[in-house]
Request: fold
Amino acid sequence: MSLYELIISRRSIRQFKPEPVSREILERLVSAARLAPSASNLQPLEFIVVDEAELRKQFFPCLKWAGYIAPEGNPKQGHEPVAYIVVLVNLQVRDKGYERDVGAAVENMILTVWEEGIGSCWLLSVERDKVQEMLKIPMNYKIDSVLALGYPDEKPVVEDIEGSLKYWKDKQECLHVPKRKLEDIIHFNVF
Ligand SMILES: Cc1cc2nc3c(=O)[nH]c(=O)nc-3n(C[C@H](O)[C@H](O)[C@H](O)COP(=O)(O)O)c2cc1C
Reply:
């Protein structure tokens, strides 16, 4: 797949197959994050890979999924993510203005795994206090977000927005994701 095909075919995945993602791939995606653009090249981000089974069980309830259709969009039992990347910000390096670094790093990871046929969901709805304690994260690190990973067990589809921007599931449990039309967001030369 070309990079453009990867970008346009990517969807957030919330139902996963119970197949592990190899450490090699997990390391590769963190390396893709490592090499993302960083303002002033300060590189305030670090990453915790959570792939151990017992820890994953404790970790899963700390996340909230697909708010518009909750709880319908939750990963079903046996279809939970098989790994997580916890995105950390070292507050001693940067305590504000790091959000764009996170965006670039996480999108690099999302596309890197998608090329491997692995789906992901980027989550901001994280019970940070619980995760901070569970993973023994020092207080000078802030949890920005979590990337949940696994081989996809669903195929969400894109729709042109017709009114609502809320995604929905149909009777076959296929997720439909409305996106704004190109002609509604593009401006040439003047607004
Ligand atoms: C910054 C950010 C935070 C998000 N947080 C969550 C979240 O907490 N839970 C969740 O299920 N999805 C989360 N998402 C995924 C969005 O719901 C999803 O990107 C959106 O519905 C569009 O679908 P798509 O990714 O398939 O294009 C988040 C996405 C972004 C960019």
Summary: Helices lie at 3-9, 23-34, 53-59, 99-115, 128-134, 182-185. The chain has two domains: 3-154, 156-191. The chain has a mean pLDDT of 97.
